[in-house]
Design a protein that fits this description.
Oligomer: single chain
Number of helices: 5
Distance between the termini: 73 Å
Helix content: 55-70%
Radius of gyration: 35 Å
Order of helices and strands: HHHHH
Structural class: mainly alpha
Shape: flat
């Protein structure tokens, strides 16, 4: 089942790439669009004067394929992992019944004296000369 999910995921990625390219190649107007940058004249030569119709149909089929693949992968993932959650819930129930009802309290440790935390720092003397400024 996981192999089939992997194959369908790969097909979904390829379908996404094709769908992106199809949307970019389509010309919204004759003078504008990213399709002009990718050679809008080549699409006219390949599909004829009504190339917008062929590209529109291919885009519709790619979109339907995208939604169908995404739905199939979602359903298959749900079915593949459904048994795992039931087994996990059973393990959680068993582990909760095995835990004792009373948990022993930890004994508090005495706090360290504050005097041991302080470190004596040397006092700065005002008689020390300042460091000379670096030469430029």
């Amino acid at each position: 089942m996981s192999f089939l999910i992997g194959v369908l995921t790969f097909l979904l990625v390829i379908n996404c790439a094709v769908l992106i390219l199809l949307v970019l190649v389509q010309l919204p107007k004759k003078d504008a669009g990213a399709g002009l940058a990718f050679g809008g004249g080549a699409a006219d030569a390949l599909f004829g004067a009504g190339s917008g119709n062929a590209l529109t149909k291919i885009t519709k089929y790619a979109t339907v394929g995208f939604f169908a693949l995404a739905l199939c992968i979602g359903i298959m993932q749900d079915r593949a992992h459904q048994g795992n959650t039931a087994a996990f819930e059973k393990q959680v129930d068993q582990s909760q019944s095995a835990v004792p009802a009373t948990i022993p309290q930890a004994t508090p440790q005495p706090a360290a004296p504050k005097s041991s935390l302080l470190i004596a720092q040397p006092e700065a003397s005002s008689n020390t000369p300042a460091a000379p400024a670096p030469a430029k």
